[in-house]
Amino acid sequence: MTSPTPTALAPLLRAMPKAELHIHIEGSLEPELIFALARRNGVALPHAGVEALRAAYAFTDLQSFLDIYYAGASVLLQEQDFFDMAWAYFERAAADNVVHAELFFDPQTHTERGVPMATVLNGLHRACLQAQSRLGISASLILCFLRHLSEEAALQTLEQALPWRHLFIGVGLDSSERGHPPEKFARVFARCRDLGLHLVAHAGEEGPPAYIESALDVLRVERIDHGVRCTESPALVQRLAAAQVPLTVCPLSNLKLRVVPSLADHNLKALLDAGLCATVNSDDPAYFGGYINENFVQIFSALPALTRQDAYTLARNSFKASFAPPAAKQAWMQRLDEVFAAA
Ligand code: ADE
Ligand code: ZN
Hints:
Elements: H1 10-15, E1 18-24, H2 31-41, H3 50-55, H4 62-72, H5 79-95, E2 98-105, H6 107-111, H7 117-135, E3 138-146, H8 151-161, E4 170-174, H9 186-194, E5 198-203, H10 209-219, E6 223-226, H11 234-243, E7 246-249, H12 251-256, H13 268-273, E8 277-280, H14 285-288, H15 292-302, H16 308-320, H17 326-342
Parallel strand pairs: 1-2, 2-3, 3-4, 4-5, 5-6, 6-7, 7-8
Helix pairs in contact: 5-7, 8-9, 16-17
Bound molecules: adenine and zinc ion.
């Protein structure tokens, strides 16, 4: 298959300020860092080296990815490991002109291995503080519950995290989607809502449009992560557009996990044309072949119908859909206008 002509919009896509709202920080662990941390912590890995590990990144669906992703996270043991992982992400995000990032983390992947919640949260939080002070990136954390585990386990995880409630702004729902509908987590999301946490959930990635509806109606989430299968239901598209529910779309993830057969088949243009508040994000960049700018450049190259106006809308949507304070959103949007006026 020939690759598409690179988009002429690439310099602008790279330069425009943007927010990243869908990044699993464990999915930013590059093979080199996995092996460095394994050595530091004396953890044995099934793959012989960096190249052998990269060669295993040939996914057939979400589950085939998750098996490797959880194995990669097994090298994270000390607070410094969590810091180093997040700091490596922030340096790449700064290079991509990300000015605000809301990072997902999966505490159960770590607490199940005996890593204390404090270790995870303190390491990630310290990296967020340094991102602000050294890179000018505003950063916050969203705690995700693993949907292949029970709601009871999610409730226990929430209780374990509550002493550090001030260190995260919201909760999400990730991991294996099919067979684990949002309503399985109705009680824990209701409790999080009472606590004043922001609410998001993965839905409509591999799962049906009905999962997007129950994430909205039962969990009462403010954003849908992925959500690309919404276009199978015109009524749902209308609803998402009318309510301006943000979708955090991840093109390279959708390609690598075979949600779409090729980027040319991706529905990002259709989502924008339908008036949805779509955003572009990287999901698990170390595993899917690129960080946020690579997602922008590759999807714009594969879909020549995407315009300069679409680029502006996507960047603007990323600020609009963020959980940042209104004054910060306003300032980033103004900076965005300046970059577009000058380009
Ligand atoms: N965890 C990390 N990446 C994920 C994805 N794309 N979908 C569901 N869970 C995930
Ligand atoms: Zn995701």
